[in-house]
C-alpha cells in the first residue's frame, strides 16, 4: 500500500479555494514517511516563498518567477508587519492560520484567498504582461507612492489590488503646474473587465499615462500588446 496524494472532498464550488489551500499545504510541507493526515502547523517563511513561487510559475505557465522584493511585500502582508526588514522575515515561520484561516486586517478574505485571486487573474488575462516584466504586481500602495513621488508627470506602474480579490490597478503620478504632485490609483480591473478590453488597450486609451516606471514610453513597453485593429485605426 502507498499513501495517495492529498484529496479534499467539497460539496460546493465556493469551497474550491479553501480545498486548494489544504492540498497545497499538504503537498508542500508534509513529510514523505509521515503518519497519515499529519502535517506541520508552522513552516519556515523561506519554504513558503519557494512554494508560492513554484505554484505561481506552474499555474501561470511562465518562466518568470517571483523576485526578492515580491517576497518582501508578501511577508509584510501575511505577517501584518511593515516595520521588519527582509532579513527579519527570513528567520520567521508562518502558520496555517496566517496562510488561510485568519482574515487580513481590514479585509474580508485570507492571505491565500487573495493570492489565489492574483494567480487566477494573471493566468487568465496577464500572462504575457507578467512574462515581459511589465507588471510589478506585488507592491504596497505606500511603496508605490514613494517610487513615483519623484518621477515626471504621467509615470505609472501596475500593481495587484489590495482591497479586491483578483484585481490589477494602475498607479500614476499627476503633477500640477504649481509643482504639487499626487499619486492616483485607477479603479482595479477584474478578469471580466480585461476580457472585454485588454489591459494593453486600456493603457493605450488613458492619455494621462506616459511612461512605465522608471522611464519606458508606454507605446514602447506595451505596443506589442495593443490590439492590431486599434493600432491600424490611427
From TrEMBL:
Gene Ontology MF term list: DNA binding; DNA-binding transcription factor activity
One GO cellular component, as annotated: nucleus
Domain SH2: residue ranges: 114-224
Keywords, in A-Z order: Activator, Cytoplasm, DNA-binding, Nucleus, Phosphoprotein, SH2 domain, Transcription, Transcription regulation
Main location per the UniProt record: cytoplasm
GO biological process: cell surface receptor signaling pathway
Pfam families for the chain: SH2, STAT_linker
Subcellular location: Cytoplasm; Nucleus
SUPFAM superfamilies listed in its UniProt record: p53-like transcription factors, SH2 domain
Protein's UniProt keywords contain Transcription: yes
Similarity field: Belongs to the transcription factor STAT family.
Protein name in the entry: STAT6 protein
Species name: Steatornis caripensis
Gene: Stat6_1
Amino acid at each position: 500500500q502507498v499513501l495517495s496524494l492529498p484529496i479534499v472532498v467539497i460539496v460546493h464550488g465556493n469551497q474550491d479555494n479553501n480545498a486548494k489551500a489544504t492540498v497545497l499545504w499538504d503537498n508542500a510541507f508534509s513529510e514523505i514517511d509521515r503518519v497519515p493526515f499529519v502535517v506541520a502547523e508552522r513552516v519556515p517563511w523561506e519554504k513558503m516563498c519557494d512554494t508560492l513561487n513554484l505554484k505561481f510559475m506552474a499555474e501561470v505557465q511562465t518562466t518568470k518567477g517571483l523576485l526578492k522584493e515580491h517576497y518582501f511585500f508578501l511577508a509584510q502582508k501575511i505577517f501584518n508587519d511593515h516595520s521588519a526588514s527582509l532579513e527579519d522575515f527570513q528567520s520567521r515561520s508562518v502558520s496555517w492560520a496566517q496562510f488561510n484561516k485568519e482574515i487580513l486586517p481590514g479585509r474580508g478574505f485570507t492571505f491565500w484567498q487573495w493570492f489565489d485571486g492574483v494567480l487566477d487573474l494573471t493566468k487568465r488575462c496577464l500572462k504575457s504582461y507578467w512574462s515581459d516584466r511589465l507588471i510589478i504586481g506585488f507592491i504596497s500602495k505606500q511603496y508605490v507612492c514613494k517610487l513615483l513621488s519623484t518621477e515626471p508627470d504621467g509615470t505609472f506602474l501596475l500593481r495587484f489590488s489590495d482591497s479586491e480579490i483578483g484585481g490589477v490597478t494602475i498607479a500614476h503620478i499627476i503633477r500640477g503646474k504649481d509643482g504639487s504632485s499626487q499619486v492616483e490609483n485607477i479603479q482595479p480591473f477584474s478578469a471580466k473587465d480585461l476580457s472585454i478590453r485588454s489591459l494593453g488597450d486600456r493603457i493605450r486609451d488613458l492619455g494621462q499615462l506616459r511612461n512605465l516606471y522608471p522611464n519606458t514610453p508606454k507605446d514602447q513597453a506595451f505596443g506589442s500588446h495593443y490590439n492590431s485593429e486599434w493600432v491600424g485605426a490611427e
